[in-house]
Each structure stands twice: as C-alpha cells, then as structure tokens.
Amino acid sequence: MNITVKFFATFRRGREKIVNIEVERGSTVKEVLDIVKIEVDEIAILLVNGRDGTIAQLLNDGDTLSLFPPVGGG
C-alpha cells in the first residue's frame, strides 16, 4: 500500500517535503518512522490524515502521515 509522508521544519533537512512510501498492509506509524529514520522522541506532533495520530496506529492505503519536530523560538 502507498503512504504519503509530509515532513515539516527541521525534518525537511536532507529530505523532500513530501514522499510516497510503499509499505506492507497492516503497517504502523512506528514502522514508517523506522523507514524514514526518525526516532519517536524527536516528534512533537504526529498527524494521520490531519488528525492526531499515535505511534501504534495502523495505516491504510492512501493515508497521509505528517511529522513535526519540536519548534522553539522567541
């Protein structure tokens, strides 16, 4: 199945903004994170299809995973 991953802020360094990844049916968000080499503790916001997601969430064909790192400023 095909999953779209959108990277934001510092996650874009060395990556495209949006990538399509082929994963096995029944894959979880964590398995996709392993593929894109992002550790769970690096993520501040994780959305699946624009809604709050979890690491253990099962993905479906055509889902969009959006990943945001912690962002500071001031």
From TrEMBL:
<dbReference type="InterPro" id="IPR012675">
    <property type="entry name" value="Beta-grasp_dom_sf"/>
</dbReference>
<dbReference type="InterPro" id="IPR003749">
    <property type="entry name" value="ThiS/MoaD-like"/>
</dbReference>
<protein>
    <submittedName>
        <fullName>MoaD/ThiS family protein</fullName>
    </submittedName>
</protein>
<dbReference type="InterPro" id="IPR016155">
    <property type="entry name" value="Mopterin_synth/thiamin_S_b"/>
</dbReference>
<dbReference type="Pfam" id="PF02597">
    <property type="entry name" value="ThiS"/>
</dbReference>
